[in-house]
Structures are given as structure tokens and as C-alpha cells.
Amino acid sequence: MFKKAYRYDDETVFYFDEQDNKYVAKGANLTWRLNNPGLLPSRSLAKIKCKIIGTHHQYAIFPDFQMGKNALRSWMRSSKYFDSSLKEIAKHYQSGYAESYLKQLCELTGLTSQTKLSSLSSIDFEKLLNAIQKLAGFSFENDHPFSLLPKITAKFHSKDRTIESYLVGYETILSKQEAIQWIESHELDAVIVHRKEGDVYLRSRPGHHFNQIHFQQEEYGSNKEFKDAFRNVGTEEPEQCVWGFINGISNSAQQALQSANLISKHANGERVWSLVNDAKFLGNLIEAAAQKLNYRSEVVKFGVQFLKFLIELSDQSPLKPPIVVFAHSQGALIIDLALDGLKSEERNRIHIYTFGGAAFIPPGKSHPNTLNNISIADPIPRIAMQGLVKVLLRIYEGEKMGHNSSQVVAQLIQEDIDAYVDTQNQTVVDEFKNQRQQQYENALEKSLNISIIDENISSFWEHSFAIPCYQEVVRKIINQYRQK
Predict the structure, then answer these.
(1) Whether 277 contacts 299, CB under 8 Å
(2) Whether residue 278 sits in one domain with residue 392
(3) What is the pLDDT of residues 381-418, one digit of tens each?
(4) What pTM was computed for the model?
(5) Residue 119 is part of a domain; what is its CATH number?
(6) Contact between residue 280 and residue 311 where contact means Cβ atoms under 8 Å apart
(7) I need a labelling partner for 420 at 20 to 30 A (CA). Which of 113, 163, 208, 401 fits?
(8) Are 259 and 325 within one domain?
(9) Considering 142, 177, 198, which residue would you say is the last residue of a domain?
């Protein structure tokens, strides 16, 4: 239900609900825009105690149509009109053309001009109400919900302000000029603020400003931006790759920027865009657990737009440079879920390199160059995907001892039989063996783009994106793309 409303101009009314969401009623008939099918003036409603939430010139604005209809019913039953005839009703609505209005009222209701309201049956009384709202211009063809104005969810811009865009909801990206146009045409719930020096910036609508769309900065207060969704470091260079980064769990903004700067440093200072994923440890941990269950959290929705934004950056260049995204820890889980929000042809353009991921990007889900890297000392992949990683590490260790993957799998199957099969029935044993064989073959198929790193190990347990073994791989990957 709406809690307040105000007239913006003669064709536009704004409504606000209990959560302060903003709706717009534009065009159509005034009775529809005001939820006032009887066009009752606000001054006439004081005695009958009808709830109004705003005014449009002299007319009342009601929370919904039914309340407007109930107000009309109460008004007609008030002491002022209940003992009056239809002629008195006609004089109220059309004082200068009462006879013409009265004639139409009688034709629509089948009543006479001298009929008093107090003598009407309940059916005839409703006929009269319907006739009044019809003559006021109300039509059920216009009786539909008002438009909920979307809000700006986040803002992203380069440090040099050459790029400034706004994310509306989680599906639409607007340039600054497009966002301004949407606000001015009442399609977006935000505010345009003018600085003294002539600059313009956008802000979310404050709860206490209802009668303006444009403000001077001194009226509005300090410059508070929308939540940042993306960041960037480095300098845009001609013909560079489109570099992206998604950090992992429990990273502050400073730590995430430090990691992005490592990528930029390997790329000789080129610009790197990163998805904002700042949170305290517990918040990240709970969210990551939900993401493992395929929950599309806010950062995942931002991630979809982040990838689309990187694709757009590539398309802006005649060379359409590769889009290369590095993801660490929870970042791999985020990008895996975000890929589900892209079309197949879009996913195939994203070159992804994960490090210590809480998820692996399976073969075929993105560009064929996609590779998942895990250090043999990194505990996170072991915890997040323990079954698959256990198999990979056993194969890895077996190959160092001269065994091939088939021999290692055979050994794993025999260990499973010893641990889980408590029967001498050969048929049961063979069926279990076949099931395990299929499971391990599926695991090996998923691991085709997983690389285990055992060089430059700096600690017994290591996970940070900055550890030497991961950074050496990042450096080699970047050099390969920059040399092409």
C-alpha cells in the first residue's frame, strides 16, 4: 500500500510505499492517476475521515483505487448529500452544466432527477457510484499497477573518469547521460545534483526530498556516491588486453587493490579492472557457503555485469583484444556462477585463470584457454572440492613415482572396495567396481583444465594470491598474451 504521494506536474504523480520505493503514474485519466474515481476534493473529506496521502491541486490522492471508491461511498452517505437528490450531485460535479450532467447520470442509472440518495437500494446506490466514476473519466482499462521506478544499484568509473556508468537493478548498464535521461523522463529513481562549478553527478533519492528532481549541491549536502561495483588500477594502454580480477574471501578493499596491482605490474602498468568483493571474514564465509549451493548473491549478480562490461570494453576496440580474468579463492566460485548469466557466445570470449579456487571452471564453460591452478600446499581447493582434488593429487603423486592415471585409478578403486564392500559376492563387487570406475573417469574429464603447481612453494600451507608460485604463473600468462 502507498503511504504518500505528490503531484509532479499535471500529467505525473509520484507514489511511495512503506519501503520508500518510488512509483510513477503518468498519462491516462486523472481519476486513475489519483486513485480517486469520484474526483473528490481533499477539503470535502475532513468530516468523513478518509485516508488521503497527497493532493493534486484541490483533489485528493488515495493509497489505492478501493480506498478511493470507499471514500466516494462514504462521501455520498455523509449528512451533506445523503438526503439530497441526484440534482444536487449534478450541481456539485458540473455547476455550470448541471442539466447535461444530470441527464447523463439518469440515463446511466435509470433513476429520476428527484430521486434521493437515502431512498436508494444497495444495488441502485452502487449503480450511482459507478455512473459518477464513469462520468469523471475513470475506466477499468486504465486500472493497472503504477510503474515501479528501478534504483541505481551501483556505480563504476575509471579513476580518470573517462568511463562512468551505472548499474540499474542487476540487469541494465547505463552511461551517465542515459541515466540522466531516465531520471528526467521519470524512468529511474535517482537525483541529479548540480555543483557550483557546473559539474553534474547522480545520487540516490533522499527520503525527505519529494518535490524536486534537480538540486544545487549546497541544498543537498556532501557528495556521496553510489556503491562501487568495479574498481580499476593502472593506466589504459592502446591495444592492451582487457584484464580483469576477482578477489577471494576476507579481502579488504586495500588488499583487493594490492592483488589487482600485482597483475598490472606484470602487465607493465596496464589497466586492470576488478570486481568489488569486500567483506569481513564471517560475511564472506557465509556467502561463499550459500554460493556453493548455487545461490546468486549480490556479488554474483554484479559479476554478470562485470563480465558483460569487460566484453563491451573489448568490443570498443577495433582489434577486439582478449578478455583475461584472474580469479582467486572465492573469486573462482563467483565467476563460475556469473558465467551462468551469460550467453554461450559471451562465455566463450572469457579467458579465465583461477588460483586456489573454491570452485573449478569446467572445460567448455568459457574460452578453451581457461585454466584452474592450485598449489599442492593450498588448503582451500582441498576443502572446497575435496573429492576431486584428492583424486588429482593421488594421480599427481603416482605419476611422479612412474605410474599412469589408469594404474592410480585402479589402486583407488581397490582401496574403495576394501573400505566399503563387505561381501564376497563377485557380482556385487563388480557392480561397485564399475560404478567407481565411472566416477573416477568423470572426475578425470572435469580435471582436463586443472594444473597442479609444486614449484616456488613458500610455506607448508599457502593460499594468498600473492604467494610466489601463483605470481610466477600469473606473470607467464600475462607475458604470453602481451607477446601475441
Answers:
(1) yes
(2) yes
(3) 998 888 888 888 888 888 888 898 899 889 988 988 88
(4) 0.78
(5) 1.10.8
(6) no
(7) 401
(8) yes
(9) 142
DSSP 466: T
Lowest mean pLDDT, pick from 12-26, 258-272, 335-349:
12-26
pLDDT tens digit sequence for 2-50: 999 989 999 999 999 998 899 999 988 899 999 999 999 888 786 677 8
Concatenating the DSSP letter of every residue in 411-438 gives HHHHHHHHHH-----HHHHHHHHHHHHH
Residues 127 and 171 in one domain: no
Same domain, 162 and 123: no
Is 194 domain-assigned? Answer: yes
**Confidence check: pLDDT of 208 > 50:** no
Torsion angle of alpha carbons 295, 298, 303, 308, nearest 10°?
110
Rounded CA-CA distance 447/396 in Å is 12
d(CA 474, CA 482): 12
Confidence class of residue 206 from pLDDT cuts 50, 70 and 90?
Answer: low
pLDDT tens digits for 55-92?
Answer: 999 999 999 999 999 999 998 888 888 888 888 888 88
Give me the DSSP letters along 356-387. S-SS---TTSS-TT-EEEEETT-HHHHHHTHH
442-474 burial, b at 16+ Cβ within 10 Å, e below that, comes to ebbebbebbebbeeeeeeeebbbbebebbbebb
Q: What is the pLDDT of residue 352?
A: 98
Shared domain check, 241 and 210: no
- What is the number of residues in the chain? 484
| Average pLDDT score over residue span 449-477 | 94
210 falls in which pLDDT band (50, 70, 90)?
A: very low
In a domain, 225, yes or no: no
Cell of 128: 450511482
Residues 169 and 257 in one domain: no
Cα–Cα distance measured from residue 240 to residue 478, given in angstroms and rounded to the nearest whole number: 11
In a domain, 339, yes or no: yes
End position of a domain, from candidates 220, 245, 276: 220
State whether 120 and 173 are in the same domain.
no
Dihedral of CA 362/366/368/371: which sign? negative
Residue with cell 599442492: 376
Average pLDDT, the chain: 88
Question: Which residue segment(s) compose the domain that 188 sits in?
Answer: 150-220
Assess whether 99 and 247 both reside in one domain.
Answer: no
Q: How many whole angstroms separate alpha carbon 156 and alpha carbon 143?
A: 39
Q: How would DSSP label each residue in 287-329?
A: HHHHHHTT---HHHHHHHHHHHHHHHHHHTSTT---EEEEEET
Number of domains in the chain: 3
Place of cell 545461490: 295
Q: What is the dihedral of CA 224, 229, 235, 236, to 10 degrees?
A: -120
